[in-house]
């Protein structure tokens, strides 16, 4: 089946970057609710960015060991928010909201993806990321050849992607979606509309080139 690769751009902070991502064909935009991140947003800032999204572009709220009240406030304030858990949350922490969510997994040689999938039966997807110092957004690629297990629902390929390597990632992993943050930044935490456009164009070109 020919299947286009969905695109998530993570860690947006500026309206111009949101608009560029939407125009370039992004399917989902990540809003970071983790105060220690250079990409962190207040709820107010996140609401203003989410209000710019047209139908069928999904706002994704990224949390790292957040207090339940913080998740609840974001769910109340941003209609259609998809949750992404990127910390040490248990399956119970992720599922208590009764809402679709993405579970980030740092892929190491010993990572058992099937076990992760079994522990998160209600996750929409596993978001496969590189192990980094801290929790994510580190711009590091993990060893894609570790992905020998197929999981019973979609995966999002993440970690160190950019316009130059995303086609290889799509060919090797055949993910449902790709996710990028550092690879569309001109300096840490500062997105570039031009790099966002280049990344999306590279995904579209990879899809056009591959029989999937
Ligand atoms: O973006 C952050 O600063 C961040 C902080 C803490 C946990 C996760 C974070 N980002 C998660 C993402 O979804 C990133 O897009 C993903 O880790 C890939 O990042 P990158 O390797 O920089 O493309």
Q: How would you characterize the overall build of this protein?
A:
There is one protein chain. This protein has an eight-stranded parallel β-barrel with strand order 1-2-3-4-5-6-7-8, surrounded by five helices. It has a two-stranded antiparallel sheet with strand order 9-10. The protein is α/β, with parallel strands linked by helices. The protein contains seven helices and ten strands. It has helices spanning 15-24, 43-50, 68-77, 91-95, 113-119, 166-173, 193-209, and strands spanning 6-10, 28-33, 58-63, 82-85, 101-106, 123-129, 155-157, 177-180, 185-187, 190-191. The chain starts with 5 loop residues before the first strand and ends with a helix. It has one domain (6-209): TIM Barrel, CATH 3.20.20. Helix 6 runs parallel beside helix 7. 31% of the residues lie in helices and 22% in strands. The structure holds ligand LARABZUK. Ligand LARABZUK is lined by residues 10-11, 30, 32, 34, 37, 39, 62, 64, 86, 129, 135-139, 158-161, 179-183.
- Let me know the average pLDDT: 95
CA-CA gap between termini: 6 Å
Portion of residues in helices? 25-40%
Number of helices in the DSSP assignment: 7
- Biggest sheet features: 8 strands, parallel, barrel
The topology string of helices and strands comes to EHEHEHEHEHEEHEEEH
- CATH topology name, in short, is TIM Barrel
Number of domains: 1
- Beta-strand segment tally: 10
- How are the strands ordered across the major sheet? 1-2-3-4-5-6-7-8
Report Rg: 16 Å
CATH class: Alpha Beta
Question: Helix/strand-derived class?
Answer: alpha/beta
Q: Judging by the overall fold, what is the CATH architecture?
A: Alpha-Beta Barrel
Distinct small molecules: the ligand O=C(O)c1ccccc1NCC(=O)[C@H](O)[C@H](O)COP(=O)(O)O
- Assign an overall shape: globular
Give the strand content: 15-25%
- CATH superfamily, by name, is Aldolase class I
- Give unreliable regions as ranges: none
GO molecular function, one term: phosphoribosylanthranilate isomerase activity
InterPro entries: Aldolase_TIM, PRAI_dom, RibuloseP-bd_barrel, TrpF_fam
Domain N-(5'phosphoribosyl) anthranilate isomerase (PRAI): 7-200
Protein name: N-(5'-phosphoribosyl)anthranilate isomerase
């Amino acid at each position: 089946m020919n299947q286009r690769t969905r695109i998530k751009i993570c860690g947006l902070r500026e309206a111009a970057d949101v608009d560029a991502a939407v125009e370039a064909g992004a399917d989902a935009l990540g809003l970071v609710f983790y105060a220690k991140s250079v990409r962190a947003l207040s709820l107010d800032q996140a609401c203003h960015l989410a209000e710019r999204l047209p139908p069928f572009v999904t706002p994704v709220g990224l949390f790292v060991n957040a207090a339940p009240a913080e998740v609840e406030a974001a769910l109340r304030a941003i209609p259609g928010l998809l949750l992404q858990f990127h910390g040490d949350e248990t399956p119970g922490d992720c599922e208590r909201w009764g809402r679709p969510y993405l579970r980030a997994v740092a892929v190491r040689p010993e990572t058992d993806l099937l076990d992760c999938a079994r522990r998160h039966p209600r996750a929409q997807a596993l978001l496969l990321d590189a192990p980094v110092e801290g929790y994510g957004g580190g711009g590091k690629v993990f060893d894609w050849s570790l992905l020998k297990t197929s999981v019973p629902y979609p995966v999002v390929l993440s970690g160190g992607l950019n316009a130059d390597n995303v086609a290889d990632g799509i060919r090797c992993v055949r993910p449902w979606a790709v996710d990028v943050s550092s690879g569309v930044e001109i300096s840490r935490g500062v997105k570039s509309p031009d790099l966002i456009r280049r990344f999306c164009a590279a995904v579209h070109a990879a899809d056009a080139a591959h029989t999937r």
